[in-house]
Amino acid sequence: MSSIQSYGSKNDVSHDSENIGRVEATGAGDELIRLGDKTYYKHELMSAFGGTLNVERYAPYPKHQFANAAALGLAAFALTTFTLGLYYAGAMGVKIPNVVVSLTFFYGGIVQFLAGVWELAIGNTFAGTAFASYGPFWFGFGSIFIESFGISEAYKDEPEQLANAIGFMLVGWSIFTFLMVLCTLKSTVMLLALFVTLDLTFIILAAANFTGKASCQTAGGVMAVISACCGFYNAFAGVATPQNSYIRANPIALPG
């Protein structure tokens, strides 16, 4: 058997393209993974995989000139969603969303979109599709609360129509997010949890807009905070390495 390679950090791995013709699990409890003629510990392989938002578990890491843009996109998602979740949950009695709107444009929107472009450039289709979609979502959602766009003004005499229209938009995003959920079933527990809780957030907030129930809106805000925490975890998994942190995330692989 070939010697066991250390796979604890992406910076330790050559990005040169290699054709991997065989992938198999060996050792006691399948603790070793053989990729072609090289053998890695499973937990180290998963540590390198966590935080990249690459759902193709055994795909060779693409050769590129950028750092891990997925971690940046996840951080932008997490912080913006966390703040929005607290607003919808009614934390500290905040009723005016203007501070959240600033994040939707200058962090959640711009940064996630750019992260998506970078991920597409390096061949990570899933991450690119997710970030390049959710970034513009933040732009669109934030613009509802900006007077110069005239969106809220158009419904000033029909507030129920505005609520229903926002509900329709959120339903559409829940469908898109469900498709993303299906693509994370072979990734890690926390990555799957992120998209499941995000999908539930869209569904609950859509219901809140349709029904007008404050309790439903609060529940949606709480679910958004949970989703944001999953995002923070995945972002940390993509940033923390043996070279910069004594504490690192240990992603748990899903079966498959």
From TrEMBL:
Record-stated family: Belongs to the acetate uptake transporter (AceTr) (TC 2.A.96) family.
InterPro entries linked: AceTr, Gpr1/Fun34/SatP-like
A molecular-function term among this protein's GO annotations: acetate transmembrane transporter activity
Topology within the bilayer: Multi-pass membrane protein
Cell compartment(s), UniProt: Membrane
Compositionally biased residues, Polar residues: 1-11
Keywords per UniProt: Membrane, Transmembrane, Transmembrane helix
Protein's name in the database: Uncharacterized protein
Transmembrane segments: 66-90, 96-118, 130-150, 162-182, 189-208, 220-240
GO CC terms, sorted: plasma membrane
UniProt source species: Meyerozyma guilliermondii (strain ATCC 6260 / CBS 566 / DSM 6381 / JCM 1539 / NBRC 10279 / NRRL Y-324) (Yeast)
NCBIfam families linked to this entry: AceTr_1 (NF038013)
Disordered, as annotated region: 1-20
Chief location: membrane
Keyword Nucleotide-binding found: no
